Amino acid sequence: MAGKLVLALAMLVAQAAAFAPTIAFAPARVTDARQKVVTMGGKENELRTRIASVSNTQKITTAMRLVAAAKVRRAQQAVLATRPFSETLQSVFGGLIERLGNEDVDLPLLESREVKKVTLVIFSGDRGLCGGYNSYGIKKVEQRVKQLESQGIDVELVCVGKKPNLYFKRREINIVKFWEMGQAPNSEQANEISEFLLSSYLAGETDSVEIIYTQFVSLISSTPQIRTMLPLSPREGLMEGDELYQLTTKGGKFAVEKTEGEAVEAKQFPKDMIFEQDPLQILNSILPLYFNGQILRMLQECVASELAARMTAMGAASDNAKALKKDLSQVYNRARQASVTAEILEISAGAAAANE
User: Pairing between strand 174-179 and 154-160?
Assistant: First the structure.
């Protein structure tokens, strides 16, 4: 009689153990489920927590990627809005250069002098989570500083962006000015930067101004560039063609379309046209506008590169989270299956021992 009672109890326990995993996934509170189902030393609960954490991380990175994509589109619209003014300015500039011909142009912004001090301007980001975007520009600055110092040239730094400013503040380098980059550069910001650089150059505080910025190539590629802005070259880069990159969608995925812009033709002034002011004075007043336009364009290009880098980084993070979640789910299912199997074996062994 006692043997039959033990066998009946063993069968009831086996049935309850068989339904235990289902009870763990019932729509109850997570804390209650963890207290009721603790198997294999709590390993299943730990895996369940990790899977939930990875799922939340995947949602965050996916949302950040979509936000960066929306900001890229706004940055493209800003670039398109400034193109007509920039092209007209370049056309008038080129026409005045041709009108002056081979005359010696005596303008302060075009005057080359012996370089004893260089102002390096770095355009970078304010935030991280964008891959190696910020570190590429910082490394480019460090390389350029070593080159100039090896030639006995003094170097001062102007930082546009929080990341390079925080980095170089801990190094032995002279930072004379700092601005935040922001996510939507405008003409006011570019004008403030250009006025500071122009006043420093015209006052003789520096002999050359070089700008280090990131040139946007594609969603997965951006190239740090160094460009000498002061002294200006009257013919360098004025009538070159332009490249425009636009973010689009193809087949439900993000893609970039590249548009080759034609070179801006120099405006043709009639030979008998009489200028109210001397063409040299007009050119002198246009040069700051041209410089300001170039600063704005580089700021916009840097923001587009940062957002593209963030899209790529967050896309890779989402893919990694998805793969990790899949692997953890497989481990969790195996642990759950092993736990149930072990419990069934223990009950079967106990029932067999009771029968003997």
Answer: parallel
Closest Cα to residue 293, out of 82, 29, 18? Answer: 82
CA pair distance 94, 90, nearest whole angstrom: 6
What amino acid is encoded at 41 in this protein? G
CB 300 within 8 A of CB 80: no
The pair of structure tokens assigned to 243 is 């490249």
What pTM was estimated for this model as a whole? Answer: 0.73
Interatomic CA distance for residues 185 and 182, integer angstroms:
7
Q: pLDDT in tens for each of the 356 residues of the chain?
A: 444 444 444 444 444 444 444 333 334 343 443 343 434 555 778 888 899 999 999 999 999 988 888 887 777 777 777 777 777 777 777 777 777 665 666 778 878 888 999 999 999 999 988 888 899 999 999 999 999 999 999 999 999 999 999 999 998 889 999 999 988 888 899 999 999 999 999 999 999 999 999 876 666 667 888 988 888 775 554 545 455 555 555 555 555 555 555 555 667 666 667 767 777 777 778 888 888 888 988 888 888 888 888 888 898 999 999 999 999 999 888 888 888 888 888 888 888 888 87
Q: What is the length of the chain?
A: 356
Residue type, position 72, single letter: V
- What tokens appear for 248 in the block? 């689009």
Distances (CA, A) of 192 to 75, 186, 255, 303, 319: 20, 10, 34, 18, 41
| Residues near 143 by beta carbon (within 8 Å), at least 6 away in sequence | none
Indicate the DSSP class of residue 289.
H
Residue labelled with tokens 């000498």: 228
Q: Is 213 helix (H, G, I), strand (E, B) or coil?
A: strand
Q: Do residues 157 and 142 make contact, with C-beta atoms less than 8 angstroms apart?
A: no
β partners of residue 253: 250
Residues labelled as active-site residues: 130
Exposure string for 58-97, b = 16+ CB within 10 A, e = fewer:
beebbebbeebbebbeebbebbeebeeebbebbbbbbbbb
Name beta bridge partners: 156: 119, 174
